[in-house]
Amino acid sequence: MFKKIYIEIGNLCNLHCHFCSLDGRKKQIMSVEDFSKIVRQTKEFTDYIYLHVKGEPLIHPNFDEILAICTRENVKVNITTNATKLQEKFDCLTKSPCIRQVNISAHALSEISLDRRDEYLNGILEMIKYVSLNKTFYLSIRLWVKNESITKLILDYLNDNLKLEEKITIDSKKIVDNVYLSVDEEFEWPSLTNKFVSEKGRCYGSRDQIAILANGDVVPCCLDSSANIVLGNCLNDSLENILSGERFKKMQEGFKRGIVIEELCKHCSYRLRFK
Fold first, then answer.
1. Is 261 exposed, middle or buried (0-12, 13-18, 19+ CB in 10 A)?
2. What b/e string do you get for 203-219 counting C-beta neighbours within 10 Å, with b at 16 or more?
3. Are 19 and 62 in contact (CB under 8 A)?
4. Cα(8)–Cα(152) distance, rounded to whole angstroms?
5. pLDDT (tens digit, 9 = 90+) per residue, 83-115?
6. What is the pTM of this model?
7. Quick check: 218 and 212 in contact, CB under 8 A?
8. pLDDT (tens digit, 9 = 90+) per residue, 30-68?
């Protein structure tokens, strides 16, 4: 069993944030039929799916139906969004019993035009108020440490409008009930062109998680956005067969022994966070 499986329901996005890697893959939206087929397979291996790898999940034309499938299959869902469609999808999100957590990449505010920033921030504020009152799922507001001006703008806005007894700071963990602040260092997406890191180490990829891209390709972690380590395609083969394959087993066994097998992983600095 995995702690989570990422499913990329589309690798299209309505923003062009600097921190998202250019992966060179064909842009596409996963069909409802393909998603249904994939979810029926993943629920045998995890209780939680994350609608994320690349792209903005809330722009999927059949997003409501995607959540309905998850509800029907009794799968708990975590969503990562840039929050630009938060108000538009507010009813859908708040009325779907399958949702466990919504992660808001609030650093996306740097890509929002000045005349739309109040609208964007108000969407986040309304979701915070709903979650803290109803407590039906969790909300995480994510920010980058180095983006000080954006972080200050967001925290000032929340402090002015939530009117809390204790002000939210960059060191805060909890904002209100069921709503949390996550401030982290920006990471570098792994790439074969990155600086070589090492041939030794461990990672949660392939152990605690795998990811399924919009075309059905299975990769060992959510950071393989360029599909360098394609283990198989779960629309053409069963996920069970793919995870029984030699390449996946070698990767898993390598990490258990502290040995990095795949070339992409040797150029990934993110795994150093797991020392």
1. middle
2. bbbbbebbbbbbbbbbb
3. no
4. 31
5. 999 999 999 999 999 999 999 999 999 999 999
6. 0.95
7. yes
8. 999 999 999 999 999 999 999 999 999 999 999 999 999
